[in-house]
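Fill in residues.
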């Protein structure tokens, strides 16, 4: 294998480790999917910066939890190497799909999936219908793209615990700036009718990777003043495109919503039936 293939194999192995870790911890996992920079082609592996492998997983409630109306699981497991494995009950995860949350819709276009064989056919159906599911409310999706851009702008210079070292060193976190630039490209591609698989793939990887490392397009250090101005430019562009392309009223594609609900129903039905059969 070449270097790229080696890296892909290593990433897939890490996602599998996340899946196995959750299963060993007692979760009934439906699937585990890679999230983040590797899905956009923006992962970095240098002496100064190493992209983590982070995942999101759908898990199922037990019959007892379901009957007793126990709060659905929504948590993050932190691995020994500080990678994050986000865990969501299927009811929570599918609500995120319905809300058109950009970071959850991303899972339908993830580069790496590890699927529980018991639900493989149903997840395959979800994957086959991903464009239908992901576009069932276009207005809401546009609002979510803009909302995520605002969040990244807010975080640009804020000393959150996870990025305080960047703030102290550069005055801002280049990762947030890179996200804003990527979202600007994303919304441009989306309103032109491109499939979401195309929208998620970075079209300016070298530039975005430079921003991520607090550098300009030529690889020179980017000042905090220029970073703020650039981030504002991209956020304003996202808002303008969103406003220009919103329909007067939300249009709901009922077929996409029915497809999503059917898949959730069938997965839960299969899970609960298995527990009832085994309890006889």
């Amino acid at each position: 294998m070449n270097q790229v293939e080696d890296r892909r194999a290593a990433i897939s192995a890490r996602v599998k480790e996340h899946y196995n870790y959750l299963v060993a911890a007692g979760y009934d996992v439906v699937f585990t999917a890679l999230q983040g920079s590797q899905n956009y082609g923006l992962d970095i592996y240098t002496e100064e910066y190493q992209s983590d492998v982070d995942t999101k997983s759908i898990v199922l409630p037990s019959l007892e939890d379901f009957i007793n109306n126990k709060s659905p699981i929504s948590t993050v497991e932190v691995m020994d190497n500080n990678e994050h494995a986000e865990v969501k009950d299927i009811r929570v995860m599918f609500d995120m799909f319905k809300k058109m949350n950009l970071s959850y819709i991303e899972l339908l276009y993830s580069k790496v999936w590890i699927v529980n064989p018991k639900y493989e056919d149903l997840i395959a159906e979800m994957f086959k219908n991903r464009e239908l599911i992901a576009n069932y409310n276009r207005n809401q999706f546009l609002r979510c793209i803009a909302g995520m851009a605002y969040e990244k702008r807010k975080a640009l210079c804020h000393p959150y615990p996870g990025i305080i070292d960047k703030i102290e060193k550069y005055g801002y976190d280049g990762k947030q700036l890179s996200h804003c630039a990527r979202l600007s490209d994303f919304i441009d591609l989306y309103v032109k009718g491109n499939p979401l698989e195309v929208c998620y793939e970075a079209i300016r990887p070298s530039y975005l990777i430079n921003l991520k490392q607090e550098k300009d397009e030529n690889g020179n250090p980017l000042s905090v003043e220029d970073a703020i101005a650039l981030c504002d430019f991209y956020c304003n562009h996202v808002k303008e495109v969103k406003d220009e392309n919103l329909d007067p009223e939300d249009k709901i594609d009922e077929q996409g919503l029915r497809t999503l609900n059917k898949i959730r129903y069938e997965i839960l039905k299969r899970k609960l039936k298995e527990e009832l059969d085994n309890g006889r």
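The chain has two domains: 3-135+254-278, 138-245.
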